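Budget justification note: compute hours in this period were largely spent on complex prediction jobs such as the one shown. Inputs:
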Amino acid sequence: MTDTIIHIFLLLTLPPLLLGVINKTKALFAGRKGPPVLQLYYDIIKLMRKGMVLSRTTTWVFIAGPVVTLAAVVLAGMLIPIGQFDAPIAFAGDLIFFAYLFGLARFFTTAAALDTGSSFEGMGAAREVTFACLSEPALFFALLVLAKISGSLKLTTMLHSSTSAFSVAMAAPLVLVSIGLFIVLLTETCRIPVDDPNTHLELTMIHEVMVLDHSGPLFGIILYSAAMKLFVLGTVLLHIITPFQMNRMWLNWPLFIVEILGLAIVIGVVESVMARLRMRHIPYLLVSALLFCGFSFILLMRYYK
Amino acid sequence: MFSDLIIIAIILAAASGLPGLCLPRRTVWGQRIAAAMMSSSSILGLVGASLVLGVGQSRVLSFPWPAMGNSIIGIDGLSAFFLVPIFFMGGLGSIYGIGYWPQLRHPRTGRKLQLFWGLLTAGMMLLVISKHAIAFLLGWEVMALSAFFLVATEDHKAQCRQASWIYIIATHIGTLTLFALFVLWRWATGSYDLKPVAGDVIGIGVLNVLFFLSLIAFGLKAGVMPFHFWLPGAHASAPSHVSAMLSGIVLKMGIYGLVRFLSLLPDPPSMWGGLILLLGAISGLLGVVFAIGQHDLKRLLAYHSVENIGIILMGLGLAMLGRSAGQPEWIVLGMAGCLLHTWNHSIFKSLLFLSAGSGVHSVRTRHIDSLGGLAKTMPWTAAMFVIGAVAICGLPPLNGFVSELFVYLGLLGTMKSDGVMGSAVVIVVPVLAMIGALAVACFVKVFGAVFLGTPRTLAATCAHESPMTMRVPMIVLAASCAIIGLAPVLLIPILDNVIAGWMIEPNSSIMSIGSVAPLKMISFIWAALIIVVLLLAAVVKLRNRVVSRVGTWDCGYAYSTSRIQYTASSFAQIIVTMFRWVLRPRMHLPHIEGLFPKPAQMSSHVDDLILDRTITPASDKFAKWFGWFHRFQQGITQQYVLYILITVILMMSTMIPFREFIARLFAR
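Corresponding output:
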C-alpha cells in the first residue's frame, strides 16, 4: 500500500523535474547558467492560473486533446512498475493496454491540432502520426523480447525479468533492445535528434508546433503530460539498462530517483552533442530502431530454439 | 419457438419492399411500411437469435425438397451469432434510409432500393441458417444479386454502372467457385448436407482442394487482399446505408462461409492456418495503406474494410493453427478475436458509413478535400464519427480494442509453446501494431479534414445537421460500441457457446474466454480512464476563464483562409511516399515557368493494386489479342455465307476416304 502511494506520488510530482535537469545539462554544455531546475513547476503553476485564448475555429475536440492525453498518460504510468516495486495495476496482457493508451493520446492530440485549421499544426500532426507508424512496431518488438525472456504477458514481470531471470545469452538482445527503446523514447517525447523542443521554427517541428494555439491551463496540462510521458517511457527503459537492486527494499526508491535523474542527464548530453536530423532522415532513424528491436528478437529466438 | 421467430423475421424482411411497389411513386407510405416491417423483423429476429445465444439451444428443421433430398435449415450458435448483425443493421439501415433516401426526392429509385434492401437481408439470413449446400447457394445468390441492384441504385451515373458491373463479375467468379466447391463436397461426402465429416472420410489431397476453393470463393466475398478489387468502387458508389450494409454485413458472409466451412473439415494441416494468418496480415497492412492514399471519403472507408477483414482473418488463422497444434488457448483467443471483431466491425463500420453519409447527404460531395469544419454545423454527426473512428482504430475504451486485444493475446500466447511455429506466428504482432498506428493516422486525417478546421467550400459552409431518422440509428450503433467496449464481460457466455460449437475436435478441452483474457480489468481500467478524463475536464471547466475568442494564431498570420489549411492529401503525403513501392501514386505536378506563371494545379491519385494495375491492363491485352479476330467479322452478309460454305465444305471433306485414296495412289 505504501509503495502504491509512493508510486502515485512520484508519478505525479517527479516528471517536471526531469525536464529541468535536461535543460540544466544543456545549459551547462552551452556554458550558460540556465533556468532553475524547478522552472517547469513554476511554469505549470503559472499557466494553470491564467485564462485561455481560444480560436474561433475550434470545437470541443480542442479541449479534449490535452485532457485525454493527460488521463491516458497517468493511467499508463499506473501500469508500469517503478524500480523494483510492482505496478499498482498489474495483470496478464497489460502491455497492450499500455501501448494503446499512448495511441489514444496520439489520436486526440493530433485531432486537437487539426481542430485549429492552421497549416503548421497540420504539419506537426502529420509528422506525429507518421513517425508513430514506425516507432509503434519497434516498441512491440521490444515488448516481445521482454515477454519471451520472462515468459509472461504482465508488464511488472516482464520488466523485472532483466534483473530476476538474467542469463548471459540475453545480454546481446537486451543491449539491442535498449538502443531501440532509447530511440523510441527520444521520438515519443520529441527530443533531439528527432524534434527540437526549444525551437519555434514551425516548419521543422513536430510536437511543439501541434500545440501552438493552446494556452493557459490547457497548455499547462500539455507541458505536464509531455513530462510525464518522458518519465513513464524513461522508467521502462531504466528497467533494462540498470538492473540494480539494493539490499534494503526501501532503498530502491532513492536508487530509482537517482537513476531516472541520471537518464535525464544522458538525454541532456545527447541533446547537447547532437544536431537535429533533417525531417526526411527521421524515418531512417526509426527504421533502425525497428531493426535493433527486431534483430534482438531474432537473436533471442536462436537462444530458445 | 426461436426458430419460428427467425423464420417469421426472414419472411417479413423479404416482403418488406412489396407494399411499396403497389403504392404510387409519390407517397411516403411505401417507405414507412418497409421501414416498419424491417424494424419489426429485426426485433423478432434479435429476440430469436439472443434466445439461441443465451440459452445455447440449437435446432434443425427439415423440409422435403424432392430433387435434392431433404433441405435442412439449422440454427445453432454460429448461425445466431452472424444473424445478430444482419437483423441489427437491417432495421437500423431502413430507418436511416427514410432520412437519407426519401421516396419523395428519389421517386424513380426509392422503391427499387427498398425492395432489394429487404431481399438482401432475407438472402443473408437464409444463407446463414441453411445446412444444405443448395439452400446455401440460394441465399448466396439472392444476396449477391440484390447487392448488385443496390450498388446500381443510381444507374444513371456511369461510375455507378461500372462499379456494379465489376461487382457482379467478381461475385459470380465467387459463385462459380462455390459450385465447384459444393460439387466436390458432394462427390467426397456423398451428400449436400453441410455436416462435419470424420477424419478418415476424405483424403488430404481432396481436403486441400476443398480448402483452397473455399478460400477463393469466400475470400472474394469477404474482400481479402488479392480479391478485394471489386470492393472500393462498389462500396463507394452505393447510397450510404447500403454501403454500411455491404461493408459491415455482406462482407461478413464471406467470413461466415469460411468459418462454417472450416468447421466442417477435419484435421487441418498447419499450412492452412499459416496461409490464413499471412493473408490476414497482408490484407490488414495493405488495406490501411491504400486507405490512406484515398481522396474519396467512402472509398477510404471501403479500404478500411479490407484492413479489418485482415484482422478477422488473423484471428481465424490463429484458431486454425491452434486446431492443428492442439492448443485450446490459441483456438479460444483466435476465434474470440475473429468472431468479436466480426461483430465490432459491423457495428463501427456501419456507424462510420452512416455518419459519413450524413455529411455527404448535407454537403453533396464525397471528396475529402472539399469538406471541412462540419463539426460546427453537424455536431451530432461529428461526435458519432469520432466514436466510430476511435473504435475502428482499436483504441480504448471502445469495442475495437477488445477484439484486437484477443488477437494480440492469442498471438503473444504462441510464444509460450516451444518450437518454430510460435516464434514465426508472433512476428505478426508488430505488423498488427503497425496496422493500428496507420489506422490512427488515417482516421485523424479523415476526421480532421472533414469535421475540423474551417469549411473548404461554400457547400461545406452551408451544411446542416441531419434529421432525427438518420441520427437515431447512429446513436444506437455508437452506444453498442461503448457497451461492448466497456463491459465485454457480458459477451463471455455468447462467445463460449459459439466457440464450443465451432470446435469439432473432440479431444480439445474447452476453455472459457473469460479465463484467458482480462475482461474484468478492461471494464475497470476504462472506467478509471473515463473518470480521470471527466475529473480533468471538470478542472478545466472550473478554470475556464476564456479571455477571448480570436482567429487561429497561425504564427501571426492575420488573414488566414480555409485555403491555407493543411489538406488531407498533404497530411497523408509522408506515409504515401513511405509506401510508394506498393501504392505507386500517380502525380501530376504543376508546370510553372516564366516570371508570371499561369494558374497551375497538381493532383495525385492512388490506383488500386489489383484492379487498375493488374486486371485492367491484362484484360486490355486480351482484348487486343482477340481484336485480331475482327478481320473475320466485317458485317458483310455475303462474307458470313462464305464462312458457312467453307465450314460445310470442311466438314464434308472429312467424308472423303483419304486413306483409301492414298493407298490406291501408292498401290499403282
